[in-house]
Amino acid sequence: MMGIAARELSPEDRAVFERDGVVCLRSVLTPEETGHLRRAVDRQIAALGISRTGYDFEALARQIWDNGRAVETGAADRFDMARMKDMVRADDQARPLQDYTGDHEEGMFFYDVAAWKHDLGVREVAFDSALPEIAAQLMQSAYVNFWEDTTFVKAPHTRQKTAFHQDLAYFQIEGDQCVVVWIPLDPASLENGVMQYVRGSHLWGETYAPNVFVSQTPFASSPEKRCPDIEGAPDDFDIISFDAEPGDVIIHHVRTVHGAGGNPTELWRRAVSLRYCGDEVRYFDRPGAVPQVGVSHGLKDGDRLLAADYPVVWPKPWPGLRLARLYRP
Ligand SMILES: O=C(O)CCC(=O)C(=O)O
Q: Shortest CA distance to 131 belongs to which of 38, 17, 19, 30?
């Protein structure tokens, strides 16, 4: 049972996603829904330094390339940044990935996760917007589990690019039925760091090791191979991007290689990324995957994602049911 179709995708949208590994859908979220996300992101940014999960990767990148400076992360303890710094500095292919922004003050590449656990507005978008049903259609899945949300913000004058990477090996999952929904909360274009995708890379048949976002350096704990040096030879790859407005969403396949520029402009580039899994996905305690925040399940490798940490957000038990308020953190 698929419930009421809130947004029926066209055969063209589905074909583009299958061919390119990414599709841009216009006017999917309402102003109220993007407002929920914007407020949540602004709260996350305000908590930088005292939150355990928020980081400024721009500041971290400066510390990585400056051996004399200690790695400062305030209260954030999700990553062992001193170890990451050692890892990057030991990587002879590593180099700063930065766009020059003139003589301005440095910007901020803000990163945070798991707002859905404590923020009703984020849950309303993740669970009760048109997105779960769209994810079901793109993944051709009867059921959809919500995996997590991640926030990526580039403040004005942010030098740091997002190193090209593939998402699969960041997640504790096995299987291809997973999509990532990138949601711009400000107008986004190549000028201020909209996401870029290597068209068709989801069909390369490769799994790449996660990298540390500010460098192509792969996590040492991952057995997977290093992602190709896309930044070093952009003309060798078919890189596409979409100018997007708040309300639009850009959805990529979990194997699509993607990255982003810095933000040399005066404009903010706030974005939230929501991840959904289909019914063929299995739990896999993948070596090198980034530990999730606040999960309490006891899933073992090969299990379906049947746990409160991964709510089933599609189909709805009955049409029009709102799930966000039913979740008890
Ligand atoms: O917004 C960015 O700079 C990176 C986002 C990203 O990598 C993702 O959503 O998977």
A: 30
- Cα–chain-centroid distance for residue 167? 8
CA dist 51 and 74 (Å) reads: 8
Per residue in 267-286, pLDDT tens?
A: 999 999 999 999 999 999 99
Q: Name the β-bridge partners of 196.
A: 241, 259
Query: Using only C-alpha atoms, what is the Rg of the chain?
Result: 19
288 within 8 A of 209, measured Cβ to Cβ: yes
Pocket of ligand 1 (CB under 6 A): 152, 162, 167, 180, 182, 195, 258, 260, 271, 273
- What are phi and psi for residue 124, nearest 5 degrees? -60, -40
Residues 6+ away with beta carbon under 8 Å from 8: 137
C-alpha span between 91 and 14 (Å, rounded): 40
Alpha-carbon distance of 318 to 21, in angstroms, equals 31
Residue 310 near residue 200, CB atoms below 8 Å: no
pLDDT in tens, 51-100: 999 999 988 888 887 777 777 778 887 777 788 888 888 899 988 898 87
* Higher-confidence position of 84 and 288: 288
Minimal-distance CA residue to ligand 1 atom 2? 152
Amino acid letter, residue 310: Y
**Low-confidence winner among 30-44, 68-82, 117-131 (lowest mean pLDDT):** 68-82
Q: What's the pTM?
A: 0.95
Measured in angstroms, how far is the CA atom of residue 259 from the centroid of ligand 1?
A: 7
Q: Are 256 and 202 in contact (CB under 8 A)?
A: yes
Number of the ligand 1 atom closest to the C-alpha atom of 152: 1
Pocket test for ligand 1, best of 150, 182, 198, 257 (most atoms within 8 A of CB): 182
